[in-house]
Amino acid sequence: MQKHTVSLLVDNEPGVLSRVTGLFSGRGFNIESLCVAETVDPAISRITLVTLGDDAIAEQIIKQLNKLVNVVKVHDLTGTDYVEREMALIKVSAKAGSRAEILRIVDIFRCKVVDVSPTHYTIEVTGTADKLEAILSLLKPMGIKEIARTGAIALGRERK
Amino acid sequence: MKTLTGAQIIMAVLKDEGVDTVFGFPGGVVIDIFDELSRTDIQHILVRHEQGAAHAADGYARAKGSVGVFLVTSGPGATNTVSGLASAYMDSIPVVALTGQVPTGLIGNDAFQEVDIVGITRPCTKHNYLVKRTEDLARVLKEAFHIARSGRPGPVLVDLPKDVTQGKAKYKPLSEPKMASYKPTYEPNVKQLRKAVELIKESKRPVVFSGGGVILSGASRELTAFAKMLSAPVTASLMGLGSFPGTDPLWLGMLGMHGTYRANMAIGACDLLIGVGVRFDDRVTGKVETFAPNAKIIHVDIDPTSISKNIPVTVPVVGDCKTSLKGLNSLLDDEKIKFTRKSRKSWLDKIEKWKSTQPLKYEQRDVIKPQYVIEQLYALTKGKAIITTEVGQNQMWAAQYYHFDRPNCFVTSGGLGCMGFGLPAAIGAQVACPNRTVVDVAGDGSIQMNIQELATAAQYGLPVKVVILNNRYLGMVRQWQELFYGKRYVATDIELAPDFAKLAEAYGVLGLKATKPEEVGPVLKKGLESPGPAVMDFWVEREEGVYPMVPAGKAITEMLLA
Questions:
Q1: What is the H or E stretch that residue B425 is in?
Q2: Among partner residues B182, B305, B308, which is closest to A69 by beta-carbon distance?
Q3: Mean pLDDT value across residues B512-522
Q4: CB of B46 within 8 A of CB of B459?
Q5: Which of B123, B305, B308 sits opposite A67 (nearest CB)?
Q6: Closest A-chain CA to B307
Q7: What is the ipTM of this complex?
């Protein structure tokens, strides 16, 4: 089982997302994360989704996605040169004893504190899934109250 | 440019698409469309249940080789067609479904007879649409027909809110749509064809495996020529029956769970399997790991998702069956590759031996054997009827004992296995081919699932013939219970059934019954020769089984033979 990051261009129409997710649930494929928004062309949206599967399953997923009438383009980025980012907002408990330590971690990971209260910091962090996991494991002992993650977005790198 | 109502635009597009028949059932939100339909020369066939409309459009499409159309109302009208859509989808049949919908302003309000049919049918249609503006109607309908019939065909549903069909818009006829996101691959990659030819050259024991795709792309002639050039034996999936002549010496019979002994053994022994327009479903492959263990596989299909889905393939060819076979044939021609039957002698002899030692067989004694009824039917119709089937034993016996020499003659719910398919499909086929003999081979179980369509046949004087192989059981499940569940016939005994001959008479349809073997021929003759529809009820051996049978999960060479 390997992680595959798949980038789709789809018609920006009602019901298209449901066609994509319905395909995954109907055929027993996994969705680890999914991210959708309009592209420069308002008629087209980009879906970035991360899925798990061996080569045969990944091949089926790509083919099945291609078969959907509203899917314009499918690109399996896995194994290619691409940039992948994810953002998370982490609301962490910030008590007198831990406030400085949290700020140090924020500094090391080059993230931002975007909301401060007497009891909590909300931290914005952007990076690869690995980076997010790393900061989360450091913040966990401080007490994470809430978290929101975007799921990965990705684009292929241009040739140098 | 003319300004038309939505309903008028629908009619204009139907005419433009060459539609001559719509199967349907009315309801509140589609009255405008029916009203407009009556002002055209498009024939409307009023069914008695919407499922019948869907299957009839499917049967029409299969027999005629063009798009079938049905029109039903919103809510239950639409949901009743879901099985029909799913069946057409599984078998890749081009159907355009027009469903009424509540006015756009009411959508989402849980209005009377409102249902999200686009949501419901998303996984069982090739594509579907909800039309929100009358201005979009013409384009969407053109796309629907285009998508339904092109590439790997399938059903496309168009949901039509009442205000959209009542509203007005400018209309001008549109040309064939071009869609950025939908471009099926027709032309195969020549490199792949060359690779296939190399495998063909090396092969000593090839088998050609033909499927529904060959029939859908009209490639039977090319497939036959291909197999003859190779002197390769040919088998087919249930959906492929008729794509290669069933009376040809190279014909192996059907493959798979109820395939012939020689076809299944040939798959076990072949060194090259050439699958054309097939999808290697589980009823064909049995245990996947043991399927064609000694063979390299060439797989030609227009749908890339079919390739290497179930079975790893040596040479995939993505393309239209007809175009691909033409390409292969001309490459073989160019290289002057032709295998004579003589050069294949040892392989063909082996197959002949399997055939002579384990033919399809039954013994006709004092109770009517279902196989005997099919053989008699085959003889009396000279193999030229369009046969539709219900689902279960009746379907398998029809597939085994009626030898189809031509495509578009065997109409069966193959993938979905939808009981209740046969009678409405026969009605559709009869409308498509008014001069052909159309016979629904039915079981006493499945015929009861859409028997109300006898009224449709009677109303339009459609001379469909229903042959019921009546064993007072849900026979296929009973057979599994006999073999794998210690003969515990749970929920399969349906001895309490109507007298089908009398029921037919009640519908105004000729009803006949045979309980002895000697009555089979005369009853069939009388039913077939009668000018209108007829129901023939044959009381057959109750516990007859369909053999050979590959138990689920076994290799296809591990057959139960009786």
A1: helix B422-432
A2: B182
A3: 98
A4: yes
A5: B305
A6: A60
A7: 0.91
